[in-house]
Amino acid sequence: MVSKKEHIAERQRLNYENNKDAILMQQKERYNKIKIRLTNKNMDLDIVEKKKRFNARSYARKTPLKKECGICKTTERLERHHWDYNKPLLVSTLCNQCHEIQHIRNFGGSKFG
Asked: Which residues constitute the domain of residue 95?
């Protein structure tokens, strides 16, 4: 009796053998799309923005947290918040909930995006 794992591996191998040219073509197309996207000037702006955020976070880690949230005054789950990534030293201490709310209001999305 063949195990389920072996059966799946065999089906994947047969699928690859039967469709090798199409699979390789798809992989090549994906690679070319990524290559174009990385060289696109619009993407360069995103990279600059990511560098700003990375640098701002690096500065923030060196800044000690205050003892309470700057908005609701809770002392639990405190985080650092940048109001403007162009001003990396302007950091506030906010609780997790207030931090998420500020990102939705001011940046139009999650603090992770």
From this structure: 59-113
Closest CA to 79 of 101, 106, 98, 51: 98
Cα angle 26-42-55, degrees, rounded to a multiple of 5: 110
Backbone angles phi, psi at 37, to 5 degrees: -60, -40
Helix (H, G, I), strand (E, B) or coil at 6: helix
Phi, psi of 38 (to 5 degrees): -70, -30
| pLDDT tens column, 49-80 | 778 777 777 877 777 888 999 899 989 999 88
Whether residue 44 contacts residue 52, with contact meaning beta carbons closer than 8 Å, is answered with no
Please state the domain count of the chain.
1
Q: How far apart are CA 19 and CA 10, in angstroms?
A: 14
pLDDT tens per residue across span 29-40? 887 776 666 555
Query: pTM of the entire structure?
Result: 0.47
